[in-house]
Amino acid sequence: MLDNRNRTYALSGWTVKLNGKGWFVRKTDSADEWRGPYANETSACLSVARQLKKELIKRDALRLPL
């Protein structure tokens, strides 16, 4: 039986770039549009963190019950 207390997830990668308009982010190896501009590195990273949290919650909901 699977031990549901220990779970490990490999989450998607993200690319961050800086240009004259600000910081932009998008999923690595994706055709998605760049998101931004963000005023600073912290804002860009928080945007990525919010997306990773959504991915984690969605994937964790698929786990098998005890």
Shape: elongated
Succession of helices and strands: EEEH
Widest sheet, order of strands: 1-2-3
Count of the separate structural domains: 1
What structural class is derived from the secondary structure elements?
alpha+beta
Strand content: 15-25%
Beginning-to-end CA distance, first to last residue: 9 Å
Number of strands: 3
Q: In this structure, how is the largest beta sheet organized?
A: 3 strands, antiparallel
Q: Output the number of helix runs.
A: 1
**Helix percentage range:** 25-40%
Integer average pLDDT? 89
| Rg | 15 Å
Unreliable residue runs: none
Descriptive key words:
elongated; alpha+beta; three-stranded antiparallel sheet; 3 strands; 66 residues
Can you tell me about this structure?
Helix content is 30%, strand content 24%. It has 66 residues and is an alpha+beta fold. It has a three-stranded antiparallel sheet with strand order 1-2-3, covered by helices on one side. The termini are close together.
What is the topological layout?
Elements: E1 14-19, E2 22-27, E3 35-38, H1 41-60
Antiparallel strand pairs: 1-2, 2-3
Describe what is shown at a glance.
The chain is α+β, with helices and mostly antiparallel strands. It contains 1 helix and 3 strands; from the N terminus they run E-E-E-H. The protein starts with 13 loop residues before the first strand and ends in a 6-residue tail after the last helix.
